[in-house]
Specification:
368 residues; alpha+beta; 4-stranded antiparallel sheet
Length: 368
């Protein structure tokens, strides 16, 4: 029989706490602790020392050779009890959680009672080995993920339900937008739950909400869901129409500018102004007027025709070459030409008939 034992971890990586099967071992026994582990040495019912990674020699009151005689009064059993617990401090990932019933809260935006459920995963690790053993494990020989979740289930449910209700009721987003804010929702719940785990020497490293169970099909929920959808769809439609209207106005304005530039360029090429063009149009309208035979209208037409003729004459003069001087004529001949041009314009516009034009021309010729 070996005088000293070698005590080491023999569990798996999904175990939080594992109690060595070797107990009441002799003094000088060797303790081996692996990386990411801690070992707690209990002696006579008290947690004395916490050992990190390394090899250690344990001192107990169980002394080889004389141990048999010391144990005679107790029937061969040592009164100097000792044992070792191994604690896995690696992060335990993908530990599932979920509410066991619906959580009710008052929806803040639409002010109606709503029941939801939630589920997800979390990552845990041991932060205080001694506290975990004293407050949670006790005399158990093993603490697995399943055991830990089972122990924490009632605590988790009693804490997480109020936290979910409070978080959703104070959130700046509605239940219909919660999926887009899952990270924020998870972070807020983790902050709320962290102190509850720390009390037992466990750190809540990560906490994820992966699903929010909404009351699909309930009358009240579906009613407010339609209101929410229409609210944003109507706003989006109005904004789209506004943008289309602005684009159409800008297009029409640009079209007018282009047309105006084309007309101005045409006038410049043909050698007349906007005012001259308007004079031509007024004279044409007067010629087409049914009352054109009236003497008053005729007088106006004659005056307008004079302006038109002058405008035409100016245009012609501007288009003539300036390198050669215009031939000189006397005033009588010049006046005759001007009056004759006016008569031609009046005849062409329909104000004068052929007979009236001939009579007026003969009268001008007699006055030369």
């Amino acid at each position: 029989m070996a005088l000293a034992k070698i005590i080491k971890y023999e569990g798996d990586n999904t175990t939080f706490v594992w109690k060595s099967k070797i107990k009441d071992f002799n003094t000088m026994s060797q303790l081996i602790v692996h990386e990411s582990q801690e070992a707690v040495f209990f002696k006579n019912g008290q947690a004395l020392d916490v050992f990190e990674a390394g090899r250690y020699t344990l001192s107990t009151q169980n002394i080889p050779l004389i141990k048999h005689f010391l144990n005679l009064p107790t029937g061969g059993r040592t009164p100097f009890h000792c044992e070792v617990y191994f604690i896995n401090k690696a992060q335990q990932m993908a530990i599932k959680w979920g509410t066991d019933s619906q959580v009710q809260y008052m929806e803040p935006t639409y002010k109606f009672p709503l029941q939801i459920g939630a589920s997800g995963e979390m990552t845990l690790s041991v932060s205080d080995s001694r506290r975990l053993l004293v407050k949670l494990v006790g005399t158990e020989t093993i603490l697995t993920q399943e055991n830990l979740v089972a122990m924490f289930r009632s605590l988790l449910m009693s804490k997480i339900k109020p936290y979910i209700a409070s978080t959703m009721q104070n959130a700046p987003y509605t239940i219909f937008e919660a999926d887009a804010h899952m990270d924020e929702f998870s972070s807020n719940l983790k902050i709320s739950l962290q102190p509850d785990f720390e009390e037992y020497g466990i750190t809540l490293n990560k906490f994820f909400v992966t699903n929010i169970a909404k009351p699909e099909g309930e009358t009240a929920y579906e009613k407010f869901k339609d209101i929410h959808i229409h609210q944003y769809s109507d706003i989006a439609e109005a904004q789209l129409k506004q943008r289309i209207g602005i684009i159409e106005q800008q297009t029409e304005a640009q079209k007018i500018v282009i047309e105006s530039q084309a007309i101005a360029q045409k006038r410049a090429q043909e050698g007349y102004t906007y005012q001259q063009e308007r004079s031509f149009e007024v004279a044409r309208d007067l010629a087409q007027n049914e009352g054109g035979g009236d003497m008053t209208n005729l007088g106006i037409g004659l005056g307008m025709m004079g302006g038109v003729a002058k405008s035409v004459g100016n245009i012609m003069n501007e288009t003539l070459p300036t390198s050669q001087p215009a031939p000189k004529t006397d005033d009588g001949l010049e006046n005759f030409k001007i009056k004759l041009e006016k008569l031609k314009l009046m005849k062409d516009s329909g104000i004068l008939s052929e007979e009236e034009f001939a009579a007026e021309k003969n009268a001008l010729l007699k006055n030369l």
